Amino acid sequence: MNSHHEIIKAPIITEKSSELAQAGKYVFSVAVSANKTHVKQAIEALFNVKVKQVNIMNVKPKLKGRGYQKGLTSRKRKAIVTLQEGQTIDFN
Question: Residue ranges per domain, the chain?
Fold first, then answer.
């Protein structure tokens, strides 16, 4: 992994992730090749916070079709990052 910006693609902001954010957990879209250590280092460097725990999940590609053409969406990877007590991330 070269850069922290290559590891952390974007925050995922949904209703469910907003509820998690109030508990100190933030959801990010991360590179498919990133592991928990890469994600932890990138979050701490980019947002200047202390990470307590990182959970990563793979999102399988979905089958999509347009007429007779069928294909798969690209696979993704999400990370749920739990911060230390009193730490927050502001996306504004």
Answer: 4-83
| Angle, alpha carbons 53-54-58 (nearest 5°) | 160
Gap between the Cα atoms of 16 and 50, Å rounded: 22
Q: Does domain 4-83 have CATH number 3.40.50.720?
A: no
The residues, ordered by sequence, that sit 6+ positions from 62 with a Cβ below 8 Å of its Cβ are: 72, 73
Q: What is the pLDDT of residues 18-73, one digit of tens each?
A: 999 999 999 999 999 999 999 999 999 999 999 999 999 999 999 999 999 999 99
Sign of CA dihedral 23, 89, 49, 7: positive
State the pTM of this model: 0.88
